[in-house]
Amino acid sequence: MSYEQNIDFVLRTVEERDIRFIRLWFTDVLGNLKSLAISPEDLEEAFEEGIGFDGSAVDGFVPLQESDMLAFPDPETFQLLPWRADESSVARMFCDIKTPSGEPFAGDSRSRLDKVFRDAEKLGYILNVGAGIEYFYLKDNVVPQLLDHAGYFDLTPFDYAQDLRRSTTLALEKMSIPVEYSFHSLAPSQNGIQLRYAEACTCADNILTARLLIKEAAHYQGHYASFMPKPFTDIPGSALFVNQSLMDHEGNNLFYEENSANGVGLSDLAKHYIAGILKYAPEFSLITNPSVNSYKRLVPHGEVPCYTTWGRKNRAALVRIPIHKPNKPSATRIELRSPDPTCNPYLAFAVTLAAGMRGIKNGLELPDEATIEDIKLSEEQLRAKRFNPLPRDLGEALARFEKSTLMREALGEHIFTYLLNEKKREWEEYRLAVTDWEQKRYYAGF
Question: Taking every annotated instance into account, which residue ranges of this chain make up the domain GS catalytic (predicted)?
């Protein structure tokens, strides 16, 4: 349907379904979901003129003297919200944020991803993304306490999250967000949900919707869902596994090559794309792993990437090539394993696409494939094989990000500068804080 036809569909549905509230969603620069609700009477005006709001009250937007912003709902994202069935129907739409002059706002993450996506599309490449989201169900939001002690794919009476996963999946499917599967993940109380492929912006929308529905379902059952990357010291943390492939305008997978020499089915284009991801991963780590806690997860234990590596059967690789269906062209993809579920998905997809496209543009060569045995090598030996370390903490990530020309180009000056300053403040605050670990280790000894 055309843009106008989508608007007509929304207006007709709102009237026929007696929808009383329409929530307009967008994110701040850090990826936190924001919302305002309008009535059906204001919907046509919202499509035509936008809804005004105070941009100075949103993190990373504008100073007080430039506070007027407009939210324009995207009719393609219209969906009924699947909760509160006993109340008047509520729908939602994601918004693009614009200035009063009608220009895309430089601090709008969704618009930024759209720009990078459109730049790639002009060259004949369409980015498809699928996402695997891990998270913990905990007893409450005060002190992290486990709900179960089940393990990977376990189906036992001790997996209390079965009903929560089922209700979340059903809610997502009611919103036309297809779920491939949900499961109990590796750690106690850790769960996962795999969202089916979609174009990049739609997938980012779906991730934000899934994060909200997961929390809503847990809250309804009297529990708490946490996307914190590493809530416990002695058990694995949570990832956001990002599957990517480039398609042409006819829907052909450009990452697939029949009878390729490496036996993976990877085209030369895919190899250049992966090489770009590997080269620029240390520079975009601040986006994919945005918090102090993010780097507590990125420690070697067999399935977490710590170096710029790629591989097929190696789940410690930064980029893994899934080979479940090696002869199926549409299944050929890469899996980026470093991001965590607290990242802003719009920005994460924007910077990884920019990195991959730079790899294609410059014809970057793919280093040797990393194997399980490479985990045992020293850092010097790994560097000799062109396997460079990822940042070990937020401070290292900041240093690499600040020097990156590509990140400044991909994000734009507004978002780049805000994130740099905000994360410097966060790192300094953490660096000066005295932790429980320090008190236990040093207090009585001095």
Answer: 109-446
pLDDT in tens, 329-383: 777 899 999 999 999 999 999 999 999 999 999 999 999 888 777 777 777 887 7
Q: Is residue 444 part of a domain?
A: no
Query: Which tokens go with 310?
Result: 């790629």
Cβ neighbours, 10 Å, residue 279: 19
Residue with tokens 């895309």: 104
Same domain? 271 vs 156 = yes
Instruction: Give the integer Cα–Cα distance in Å for 433 and 70.
Output: 39
**241 and 306 part of one domain:** yes
What are 381-429's pLDDT values in tens digits?
877 877 899 999 999 999 999 999 999 999 999 999 999 999 999 999 9
Last residue in a domain, options 45, 73, 105 = 105
Q: Domain check: are 302 and 350 in the same one?
A: yes
Nearest to 242 by CA among 156, 133, 374: 133
